[in-house]
UniProtKB/TrEMBL annotation:
Keywords: Hydrolase
Taxonomic lineage: Bacteria, Pseudomonadati, Pseudomonadota, Alphaproteobacteria, Hyphomicrobiales
Name by which UniProt lists this protein: MBL fold metallo-hydrolase
Chain residue ranges for the region called Disordered: 103-134
Bias kind Basic and acidic residues: ranges: 116-134
Top-level taxon: Bacteria
Pfam families: Lactamase_B, WHD_BLACT
């Protein structure tokens, strides 16, 4: 959602699709040509190392992008493919890169929801889940994946999806944070795929770490990562306060709250904003601050307890 003045967003990202750049020694990136209100200028894939390399997030089902990635590593050996999470703008191209390189695929696991779907919930197509993805090697928090000249530590960062991982390079104080933290916008947290409770805990986990340069799934790199994470945390706390402020005036449904809170939002993002409000409401209901009849769902009506 691009409607927040309280976060120092950076939307200056001149990278052109298919062109390789090297923002830091041993870190290359290639932009996919899949711009949208949800992906900004497109998905960024990363190449770590020289000679024997890892590719992080091969991107959407896009032959041209797969070719650009393989051209970027011509004459080198891809030894690892790492996937931060299973949304369709990040993982489907893995199959092409694996077919071309035979490199094993590392990820947390197949796509799954953060919680069981409630009976009254319809499938949310907004989630864009890649339900076909299966890693060769399942990775959990703290696992270290080593290659030639680099070692990446898996950092469990559920929230945007249940299976989201960041890949930290502690020696270089760099963290590849996927869609958990983005410099151009806040991340979408849409239940049941996403969870605000998990998302906030994952922000705290990143903030406590030493890495201070973040490379994101979309948009430019983020300097002073932990400081930026504090802005994101305060923003979510302010969003929660706005919801409670609106409910203090009387019970309301989610569209009413979105109109009150997201002034001037891009209409294409209204649905996503509703799911973000739902994510906060799930958290508030779990904490006993807000009540609803039945399960906390997108069509529900909410009130203060």
């Amino acid at each position: 959602m691009a409607d927040n003045d309280d976060i120092p967003f950076n939307r200056d990202f001149p990278l052109v699709p298919g062109v390789v750049d090297e923002p830091r020694p041993g870190v290359r990136r290639v932009l996919c040509n899949n711009p949208s209100p949800f992906t900004f200028t497109g998905t960024v894939s990363y190449i770590v190392g020289k000679g024997n390399v890892a590719i992080i997030d091969p991107g959407p089902d896009d032959e041209a992008h797969a070719k650009a990635l393989l051209d970027a590593v011509r004459g080198e050996t891809v030894t690892h493919i790492l996937v931060t999470h299973t949304h369709r703008d990040h993982s489907p191209n893995t199959a092409r890169i694996k077919a071309a390189t035979s490199a094993p695929v590392y990820a947390e696991g197949p796509h799954r929801a953060s919680r069981p779907r409630f009976e009254s919930e319809k499938h949310n197509p907004e989630s864009g889940a890649d339900r076909d993805f299966r890693p060769d090697i399942q990775v959990k928090n703290g696992d270290v994946i080593e290659g030639q000249g680099w070692a990446l530590e898996a950092v469990a960062t559920p929230g945007h999806t249940a299976n989201h991982l960041a890949f930290a390079w502690p020696e270089r104080k760099i963290n590849f944070v996927g869609d958990h933290v983005m410099g151009w916008s806040t991340s979408i947290v849409a239940p049941p795929d996403g969870s605000m409770i998990d998302y906030m805990a994952s922000l705290a986990r990143l903030e406590a770490r030493e890495e201070d340069l973040y490379f994101s799934g979309h948009g430019p790199e983020i300097p002073e990562g932990p400081r930026y994470v504090r802005f994101l945390t305060r923003h979510r706390q302010a969003r929660e306060a706005s919801i409670l402020h609106r409910l203090a005036k009387g019970e309301a449904d989610i569209p009413t709250m979105v109109r009150a809170i997201y002034i001037g939002i891009d209409p294409r993002l209204t649905n996503a904003a509703g799911y973000s409000v739902l994510a906060h409401l799930e958290d508030l209901v779990a904490r006993g601050i807000v009540a609803t009849d039945g399960d906390p769902v997108i069509g529900g009506t909410y009130r203060l307890t």
